[in-house]
Amino acid sequence: QVQLAESGGGSVQAGGSLKLSCTASGSRYSSYCMAWFRQAPGKEREGVANIESDGVTKYADSVKGRFTISKDTAKTALYLQMNSLKPEDTAMYYCAVPTLDTGAWLPGCRFTESDFGYWGQGTQVTVSA
User: Fold this and answer.
1) Are 61 and 44 spatial neighbours (Cβ–Cβ below 8 Å)?
2) Separation CA 22–CA 96 (nearest Å)
3) What is the distance, to the nearest Å, from the Cα of residue 18 to the centroid of all Cα atoms in its chain?
4) Backbone phi, then psi, for 54, in 5-degree steps?
5) What is the CA radius of gyration of the chain?
6) Distance between CA atoms of 119 and 2, rounded to whole angstroms?
7) Average of per-residue pLDDT values in the chain
8) pLDDT, tens only, 55-109
9) 103 sits in which H/E element
10) d(Cα 108, Cα 52) in Å, to the nearest integer?
11) Which residue in 107, 111, 115 sits closest to 46, CA to CA?
12) 105-113 contacts: CB < 8 A, separation 24 or more?
């Protein structure tokens, strides 16, 4: 059984920084593509950043230049460094990874929710003006 656990959320003022962490337990997941999503109140969940097994990263336009995704394969951990935070970054943040089966055929690392079979419980980020 794969479980993902996010941490590092909190409340900060605009311009501040937070670093989110996601640790994975279990081994039956694909590390081909690991991602962060977020969902703000009243809005659909959206992809924020993803990272492929070879380290290639992709970001949503709204966070480019401010957020950095990274991973520690040895620790089976995924990180999201968030700088210059804005009130519009306020959301519940989730990490996600594909199942082994899905990861074997993914055409690329995308922000498609159905690509990801395992999700964490989320960590809240609140940015005040």
Assistant:
1) no
2) 9
3) 13
4) -90, 5
5) 14
6) 9
7) 95
8) 999 999 999 999 999 999 776 899 999 999 999 999 999 999 999 888 888 888 9
9) helix 100-103
10) 8
11) 111
12) 106/30, 106/32, 106/33, 108/33, 109/32, 109/33, 109/35, 109/50, 109/51, 109/52, 109/56, 109/58, 110/33, 110/47, 110/50, 111/35, 111/37, 111/46, 111/47, 111/50, 111/58, 111/60, 113/37, 113/45
Using a 10 angstrom Cβ sphere, with 0-12 exposed, 13-18 middle and 19 or more buried, the burial of residue 114 is: exposed
The position carrying tokens 């210059």 is 84
Kindly report the length of the chain. 129
Alpha-carbon gap, residue 25 to 14, rounded angstroms: 33
Q: Are 117 and 102 in contact (CB under 8 A)?
A: yes
Q: CB pairs under 8 A, 24+ apart, for 49-53?
A: 49/80, 50/109, 50/110, 50/111, 51/78, 51/109, 52/109
Residue 20 and residue 80: Cα distance in Å, rounded? 5
What the block records as the tokens of 37 is: 């999503």
The torsion angles phi and psi of 51, rounded to 5 degrees, stand at: -140, 135
Residue 25 parent element (H or E):
strand 18-25
Pairing outcome for strands 10-13 and 123-128: parallel
- Amino acid at site 120: G
